[in-house]
Design brief:
The protein is of the alpha/beta class. The protein has 17 helices and 22 strands. Helix 13 packs antiparallel against helix 14. Bound molecules: 1-O-alpha-D-glucopyranosyl-D-fructose. Residues 62, 65, 102, 145, 165, 201-202, 257, 259, 295, 330-331, 389, 416 line the site of 1-O-alpha-D-glucopyranosyl-D-fructose.
Length: 551
């Protein structure tokens, strides 16, 4: 199949976690006016799209991923009026806006759920998923992604409701056509206001396996996700319906977040002829360091496997569909801490990672703060953490008699708060994020790592990001060209070619702290970009990236 060219394939996305971006009111929480004030900065990076995490009315049990009013922007962020100003200011600058659509579940404070839980006769009862208990406990042994049972008891209906996340996030019943038509109404509401795209939260989970059978004891949580929670029997029916009823009326981009989506089932979600979604986020590479007991049981990741995942996904979507290229977001550690070296090679490795992101096939996503090389935190006490996933995992570990000193290390490594500390703008009070008390502790290193310092230094990570983004935009080959890993078995080097018509590139990255022997054997290829000023013909420096072009 001949691949179609689309604006969203050729662009680059910048992801904003609004509560940690920029506060303009002094209440310690980022807001939309803050985003507006920073639009020129974002534009200066060279990106074309901004994905903004949920900003709707919410009790914030999961920082906005628990929505109580889908058509209202939270007043804490500035309300609908500020949002409309944001859209218009973005469009003035030729920036597209992607909103987060969270419709696997609502908040338990959403009027639908407040009604539903009152009685089995209530007209909203069937908006959610209810089952009778078994042996004076929940209907089955399903566990929530955020620890504990995935079912909570409700007295008025004498039943349990399903929540794959916290108990404050009841799952919607997509079997009910009224639920689906409400969702399409919400989508229409925002797209008709000029929103250019949707990132769909855990969209892989909306179709449930209605037998609700127990999960076999031995299954790892990753397998449960793949085989039990995600990719349910009607998922493609729902996505096709969503597309034909509403999405196809607009020229918008859609990216489905897909826990549990694997190589076998992934391509169908994004195949152009299936008319469902444009892109998905799969997590094969971001769960690569999860151990036998999941995220908070981390293991050293296998670099060869890491490269293989990129190759396999590229191949799977080669002729039909489109990839999203990302190494982190608001749910994972900082990319330089996780995949680079945030100590002695912070600058080099951060530059290597953006070189990787900008030279793979697919649409690249950059998460706020990565452009200045922000790093993980390691607070001495769990009390300094905010994320519900970390806090629940901590309680569960305590109950299970875990070694809590070790567990704190796992929190340091994996907590979602690593990515949620306030954006570091300056070396002044609270890194210029707020004049008040920040809702979450800052990373102590803001005096050194901040936008203001990065602007002054022409060799900063920030300025290198700008160069790399504009570099990518210059060559269609980097967007559409074929991809081939040329050294799949090498345990330090990632070396690949990209080819598109007459344009050809060789790209090499040294994912290690050591000097590594490597020589360009083909003199027709000329080095045109690197994260080092000068380098040897015989070896690569630690965390060095080079791009060669066929002349
Ligand atoms: O994340 C979905 C999801 O599965 C994540 O919880 C992910 O698996 C986990 O963080 C990895 O440890 C989405 C949102 O991105 C996340 O912020 C929400 O908390 C979650 O959905 C529930 O809406």
């Amino acid at each position: 199949m001949k691949r179609k060219n689309n604006w969203w394939k050729e662009g680059v996305v910048y992801q904003i976690y609004p509560r940690s971006f920029k506060d303009t009111t002094g209440n310690g929480l980022g807001d939309l006016q803050g985003v507006i004030e920073k639009l020129d900065y974002i534009k200066s990076l060279g990106v074309n799209m901004i994905w903004i995490c949920p900003i709707y009315e919410s009790p914030n049990r999961d920082n906005g991923y628990d929505i109580s009013d889908y058509k209202k922007i939270s007043d804490a962020f500035g309300g609908n009026e500020t949002f409309e100003r944001l859209v218009s200011e973005m469009h003035k600058r030729d920036l597209k806006i992607i909103m987060d659509l969270v419709v696997n579940h609502t908040s338990d404070e959403h009027p639908w759920f407040k009604q539903a839980k009152t009685s089995k006769k209530n007209e909203y009862y069937d908006y959610y998923i209810w089952r009778k208990g078994k042996n004076s406990g929940p209907p089955n042994n399903w566990q929530s992604v955020f620890s504990g049972d995935a079912w909570s008891y409700n007295l008025s209906t004498n039943e349990y409701y399903l929540h794959l996340f916290t108990k404050n996030q009841p799952d919607l019943n997509w079997e009910n056509p009224k639920v689906r038509s409400q969702v399409y109404g919400i989508i229409d509401f925002w797209l008709s206001k000029g929103v250019d795209g949707l990132r769909m939260d855990v969209i892989s989970l909306i179709s449930k396996r209605n037998s609700f059978s127990d999960v076999p004891e031995k299954m790892s949580f990753a397998q449960v996700m793949e085989k039990v929670y995600a990719n349910g029997p009607k998922i493609h029916k729902y996505l096709k319906e969503m597309n034909s009823k509403i999405l196809k009326k607009y020229d918008v981009v859609t990216v489905g977040e897909g826990p549990g989506i694997n190589l076998a089932c992934g391509p169908k979600y994004v195949a152009e002829n299936e008319k469902e979604l444009n892109m998905i986020f799969h997590f094969d590479h971001l769960t690569i360091d999860f151990g036998p007991n999941g995220k908070y049981d981390p293991v050293t990741y296998d670099f060869i496997k890491f490269k293989e995942i990129f190759s396999q996904w590229d191949k799977a979507l080669e002729n039909n569909g489109w990839n999203s290229i990302f190494l982190g977001n608001h749910d994972f550690s900082r990319i330089v801490s996780r995949f680079g070296n945030d100590k002695i090679y912070r600058e080099e490795s951060a530059k290597l990672l953006i070189t990787l992101l900008m030279t793979l096939r697919g649409t690249p996503y950059i998460y706020q703060g990565d452009e200045i090389g922000m790093t993980n935190i390691s607070h001495p006490s769990i009390d300094d953490y905010n994320d519900v996933e970390s806090l629940n995992a901590w309680e569960a570990a305590k109950k299970n008699g875990a070694n809590m000193k070790e567990f704190l290390k796992a929190i340091h490594w994996q907590s979602r708060d690593n990515a949620r500390t306030p954006m570091q703008w300056t070396d002044k009070k609270n890194a210029g994020f707020t004049t008040g008390n920040p809702w979450i502790k800052l990373n102590k290193n803001y005096k050194e790592i901040n936008v203001e310092n990065s602007e002054k230094d022409k060799n900063s990570i920030l300025n290198y990001y700008r160069q790399m983004i504009s570099f990518r935009k210059k060559y269609p080959c980097l967007v559409y060209g074929s991809f081939k890993d040329l050294l799949p078995e090498h345990d330090k080097l990632f070396f690949y070619e990209r080819i598109f018509n007459q344009e050809q590139f060789l790209i090499i990255h040294n994912f290690s702290n050591s000097y590594t022997r490597w020589k360009n054997e083909n003199s027709q290829y000329v080095k045109i970009k690197s994260n080092y000023k000068s380098s040897s013909q015989e070896e690569l420096s630690p965390w060095e990236s080079r791009i060669y072009k066929l002349e």
